[in-house]
Specification:
It comes from Brassica cretica (Mustard). One of its GO terms (molecular function) is RNA-DNA hybrid ribonuclease activity. Pfam families: RVT_3. This is RNase H type-1 domain-containing protein. By secondary structure, the chain is α/β, with parallel strands linked by helices. It has one domain: 2-Layer Sandwich (Nucleotidyltransferase, domain 5). It contains six helices and seven strands. The protein has a seven-stranded mixed beta sheet with strand order 1-6-5-2-3-4-7. Strand 3 and strand 4 form a beta hairpin. The longest helix has 18 residues. The radius of gyration is 17 Å and the shape is globular. About 40% of the residues are buried.
Amino acid sequence: MLVVANDEASVWLNLHGVLSEVPSTSSVQPPVSPLWTKPPSSFLKCNVGSSWSPTSGIAGASWLIHDSKGEVLLHSRRSFCGITSKPQCDLLALSWAAEAMLDLKKEKIIFEFSSVAANSALMDPLSHPAVYHACHRLMWLINAIQGSSLHQVPELCNSPALHIADSVIRDHRLQSYVASNGPSWLRSSISNEAAGSS
């Protein structure tokens, strides 16, 4: 009964222009490996991390771009305020990363994230009305980047990005930046990740 009601609501809302169809050409791909892997030749990999404090409403977000050798070309960190839920935090981080890739004119990007909450919302946006439009915007952005895809991976595959995002909350690093290579305090972790990948 609930499924039928949701389907009917979706049809009505789409007909009346309240909701748009979520692009289907860029669905979230399941994890392939329990460990981080280098992107194929001619592709880039963008690992996206996010962290949220429910008490302050502050969220941290980060991304790192890796080439096919596993080397970090660029990374970035920023904070958001007024965030009210984990799915909102995680989807905002992903959209911010995708927007950055568009601004940098990057193509053929494998986006990786670890958020179970974001994945759940992306797989069934109508069951997550509070973040429906965030899901739609993210999928639109991914589709706008030629040759790109979105993958949920275990946290172990995404640890440098998660550490950077966590530093926003833990260490109150609220200043945004974009920098070449990876952060010096994660150099060992990033090197080990690249050395152990295929």
